[in-house]
Task: inverse folding
């Protein structure tokens, strides 16, 4: 797997275009449309072929194109404006955080730990909602001026790329990420040497290097074990997101938690608050306690308490089976030595991860460790907060459920990242730029009714046309990859209709999301799709985890249905769902359909993106929709009831 070392043959950037490099290395361009346009304008087809990666683009672009841009005054003016705008943004002290916390003496340093971050499609180190939320968290923190930094893993291959075989069965590809041609940079120490930290694994050291993505004002530090000094199998630890077996997951979580804290320490960063986004990073708490014990000589209990008061744990899982569990036998070789530094016996360590401390049959639960090392714990919607309190109840036997210290903060989105440029312009024009900085400020939206219906409709219609065109192009590419006959390729060039009511359904294909619920009455569905006066069309997308055959079966059923004669051209499946596909969909659909098995959808955020683009939600009352739904902004399926029999629930 250690196939390459990248050599960059970089075209020389003319002096007058040097700003492009600065702009490329701050992914602020991913939500600053005008900057992004500067890259796209250089060479539209190259921009597409480079997966919207400006660094790779600057590394491969034709010298002639650069010369053209360098002699184009309007281009240069735009470039300078974008550069100045980024400089101003980076230095501005007029931020929400500054206005509200300027009088506080100590500015906190917040470290936000997560296994995945979804920032842009050219950094494929995310799989779904958890990562996109984390990415949005960084972007919003940047806009608000919150002194936060991210800590994650830099995957050599990231999450898999999806394509389907002739039968509609999901296949996975794992292209290698070329870090030297991505908007990331290695973190160096004062002597100009790459920063490396060490973790002791059984019988050998593991070295970890550190990379940085600049996300506006926020830094995201990413850890990487792909170093030749490491044992070959250790080099692979940071290969794949959610790949490998339980031991691989454990190793990744050791790198994220313990390695993450050591990397911050090596960069002289001492977080005052550590945020564990999901329990994967909970080992960070042990490392933080260890350092405190060493420095102050305090006991583990004192250190744990002290760290917990500066720790926050966000749980995203609505079922106990969703938590990471590790057996004592798996943990022993990795932790017996380490926990002795915490003055704990191995059994005392195991107790930290068990709901019932004395039950030796219980495995080590990362969420339990996170609960015990963070004083602030939250679920990701009101309903999920309640579900999480119910799950945590076993650990708080004496407390009534409402007093269990698990609250909720409903997930959100970084609005600028998901709102189409046309819709953003419309909102800027009629309600002012505050809609994206202060999305939840009710008075910001007072003027939303002043947007003329015709203008709103025109934007909606334009984005739907773009979505139809995008879907056709993707389908043509998909068919070509499968060596489909010419006639079929001609056919898909004409699927869908820009005037039909367009329903979108795109998300991870986990079985609880019930993507095929829609197909339960196929005769009726076909009638709806083919209604002459009010035709309906459906665009679907989503990946299933490589080990989840149940999810893959759902994709196969949908694709096979889409190939039946009455459904052809009315229902399509787009391969390789990612942030790019997601943006086209949420900006273009009329209706966003969501049919999770309540209460399995902890929050969900894609429907929020649709709302921000003037689309309507049609969803089971679950996750965020359970609290956001009101008549007039969309439709609720059911009344929020739950069933013990899943077949009955599906039928109803
Ligand atoms: C927003 C988003 C998600 C999360 O949406 P859900 O509603 O939780 O399914 C997942 N993947 C991508 C690419 C997204 O943009």
Result:
């Amino acid at each position: 797997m250690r196939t390459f070392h990248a050599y960059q043959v970089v075209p020389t950037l003319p002096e007058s275009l040097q700003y492009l490099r600065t702009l490329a290395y701050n992914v602020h361009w991913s939500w600053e449309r005008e900057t992004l346009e500067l890259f796209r304008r250089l060479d539209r087809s190259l921009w597409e072929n480079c997966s919207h990666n400006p660094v790779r683009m600057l590394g491969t672009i034709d010298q002639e194109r650069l010369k053209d841009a360098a002699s184009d005054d309007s281009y240069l003016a735009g470039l300078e404006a974008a550069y100045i705008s980024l400089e101003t943004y980076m230095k501005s002290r007029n931020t929400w955080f500054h206005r509200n916390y300027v009088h506080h003496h100590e500015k906190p340093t917040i470290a936000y730990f997560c296994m995945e971050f979804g920032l842009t499609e050219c950094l494929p180190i995310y799989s779904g909602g958890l990562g996109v939320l984390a990415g949005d968290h960084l972007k919003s923190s940047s806009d608000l001026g919150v002194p936060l930094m991210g800590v994650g893993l830099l995957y050599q291959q990231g999450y898999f790329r999806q394509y389907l075989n002739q039968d509609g069965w999901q296949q996975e590809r794992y292209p290698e990420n070329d870090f030297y041609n991505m908007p990331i940079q290695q973190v160096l120490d004062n002597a100009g040497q790459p920063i490396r930290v060490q973790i002791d694994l059984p019988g050998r050291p593991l070295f970890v290097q550190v990379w940085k993505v600049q996300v506006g004002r926020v830094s995201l530090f990413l850890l990487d074990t792909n170093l030749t000094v490491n044992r070959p199998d250790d080099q692979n630890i940071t290969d794949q997101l959610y790949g490998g077996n339980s031991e691989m997951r454990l190793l990744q979580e050791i790198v994220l938690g313990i390695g993450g804290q050591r990397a911050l320490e090596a960069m002289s960063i001492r977080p005052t608050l550590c945020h564990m986004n999901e329990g994967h990073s909970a080992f960070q708490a042990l490392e933080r306690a260890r350092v405190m014990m060493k420095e102050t000589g305090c006991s583990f209990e004192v250190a744990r308490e002290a760290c917990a008061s500066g720790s926050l744990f966000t749980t995203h899982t609505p079922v106990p089976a969703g938590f990471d569990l590790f057996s004592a036998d798996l943990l022993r070789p990795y932790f017996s030595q380490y926990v002795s530094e915490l003055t704990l016996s191995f059994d005392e360590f195991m107790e930290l991860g068990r709901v019932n401390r004395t039950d030796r049959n219980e495995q080590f639960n990362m969420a339990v460790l996170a609960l015990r090392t963070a004083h602030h714990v939250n679920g990701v919607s009101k309903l999920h907060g309640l579900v999480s309190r119910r799950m945590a109840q076993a650990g708080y036997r004496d407390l009534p459920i409402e007093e269990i210290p698990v609250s909720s903060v409903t997930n959100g989105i970084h609005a600028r990242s998901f709102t189409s440029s046309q819709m953003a312009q419309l909102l800027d024009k009629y309600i002012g730029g505050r809609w994206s900085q202060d999305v939840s400020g009710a008075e910001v939206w007072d003027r939303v009714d002043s947007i003329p219906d015709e203008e709103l409709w025109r934007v909606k219609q334009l984005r739907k046309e773009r979505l139809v065109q995008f879907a056709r192009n993707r389908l043509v590419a998909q068919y070509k990859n499968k060596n489909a006959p010419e006639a079929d390729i001609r056919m898909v060039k004409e699927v869908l209709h820009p005037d039909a009511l367009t329903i979108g359904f795109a998300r991870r294909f986990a079985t609880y999301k019930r993507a095929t619920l829609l197909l339960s009455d196929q005769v009726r569905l076909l009638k709806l799709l083919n209604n002459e006066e009010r035709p309906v069309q459906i665009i679907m997308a989503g990946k299933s985890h490589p080990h989840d055959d149940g999810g893959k079966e759902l994709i196969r059923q949908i694709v096979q249905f889409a190939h039946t004669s009455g459904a052809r051209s009315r229902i399509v499946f787009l391969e390789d769902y990612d942030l790019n596909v997601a943006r086209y969909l949420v900006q273009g659909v009329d209706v966003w359909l969501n049919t999770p098995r309540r209460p399995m959808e902890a929050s969900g955020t894609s429907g929020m993106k649709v709302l921000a683009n003037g689309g309507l939600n049609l969803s089971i009352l679950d996750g965020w929709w359970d609290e956001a739904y009101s008549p007039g902004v969309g439709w609720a399926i059911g009344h929020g009831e739950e069933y013990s029999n899943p077949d009955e629930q599906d039928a109803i």
About this structure: Residues 282-411 form one domain. The CA atoms of residues 136 and 322 lie 23 Å apart.
